[in-house]
Amino acid sequence: MKKQELDAVISDAVNDSELRSAEIPAIDLYVDQIINLVAEKQKGGSERFLDRQLTKTMINNYSKDGVITPVKGKKYTKEQILQILTVYSMKNTLSIGEIKRILTGAYSIDGFDGEALNEFYDRYMDIKDDNRVYAAKIVDGMIEAKGIDVENDEDFLVALGGIVSLSGFFKNIAQAMIDAKYPEPEEPEESEKDDESNEKSEKKKEKKEKKAQKKEEKKNKKSEDADGDTQL
Fold first, then answer.
1. Are 174 and 94 in contact (CB under 8 A)?
2. Half-sphere exposure of 144 (CA within 13 A, CB side)
3. Which of these, 49, 125, 132, 218, has the minimum number of CB atoms within 10 Å of its CB?
């Protein structure tokens, strides 16, 4: 592969197109409207990203997993849409659980609200724009520093391995930062689990007993009505 071809591949690989907060309507939107909004924006990026469309299932899963705040009714607020877009943007690098820890940590900051999320998202998008340029410069610097000739098949493999290692290191750094700042919530103690299980069992038993009692009362009432008819 010629160096010019590699440059074109890198440029295309980082050319995703993402919504800015100013492009999101101030009104609440249905899930299909959100999906269409994102899909329309993605048309401005590389074709490689068109098969990574945001879907209704993804959004439902984000909600089910508690990554975004609970939805009231069928419409999503701008704040919830920004949460969805943050998860959607990060999920190719981090797990849903890790992203949830980030958002949970953000909302634990005193005064962090929808406006603060809006500001974070815009700054995050600005950095992503800069990183598209930095990514190409980092690859160029590595190739030059190591005297790699990408037109040579063996050197091409070395360049590819170097890029994979960089990707892995950056991911490891992000995960280490998450672990340091937003540790995983502790699992409840076994005794707490037992108490919770016992409480559920008691409630289930109580519900069953009430149902049986109502059934018995209904049966007795029918019996009383039948005796009254006989006496008449």
1. yes
2. 6
3. 218
